[in-house]
């Protein structure tokens, strides 16, 4: 998916023809959703009133938050043994995060926003965060992704995540020695196993699976998020994530209760 589709414009064609998708950062692929939807547009819809929907909706109907796509909810793995996830497997809201350890905005989100979300929502049982490796900045990104996965095999993914996103960590690079140092800092017990796992086929396959999922959605930048089927692009302010999580939780509660509290 190229960033700009610079096909020569035909002089005879009207101006209204250019495709909207060429400028957008995250398009939901047709394989996942029938109509392609741009993540940026969906995130803006989430914060603006959808008068058309509210006019036509019945007072008893339980409507999902604007910009939500049920097909994307199925991306949540909800595997209780997933070492690259935190929060209850049955939490009402799942936020999937596609990120790269060499991405500055991912680091900003990890340091400035994610801890507050964990404290307010994960610890309360409302939110589950599922990480997906999406290395897009070359060989060191790929190596860091595999190393993070390897740390997870010893139950230390999130500690590795914290160390790799610490201020100034990215600037030191993610060479083999540095990755081992980060694993040690993260409390990975068996460093020799960590090195073997980092270079193993299982790590490569796991990272590729996450990448393929992201590219299948049309994600081309990091960080990108899906909150209960609602895409969000970039390291947005805490309030944006809080609003998306609150609305998703409210919708799940209403859907569980059913119309007029019937439970269906």
TrEMBL record:
Bias (Basic residues) ranges: 12-24
Keywords: Disulfide bond, Oxidoreductase, Redox-active center, Signal
Positions of region (Disordered): 1-24, 46-75
Domain of life where this protein originates: Bacteria
Domain (Thioredoxin) ranges: 63-250
PANTHER family hit by this protein: DISULFIDE BOND FORMATION PROTEIN D, GLUTATHIONE S-TRANSFERASE KAPPA
Family note: Belongs to the thioredoxin family. DsbA subfamily.
Protein name as annotated: DsbA family protein
Organism: Streptomyces noboritoensis
Source species taxonomy: Bacteria, Bacillati, Actinomycetota, Actinomycetes, Kitasatosporales
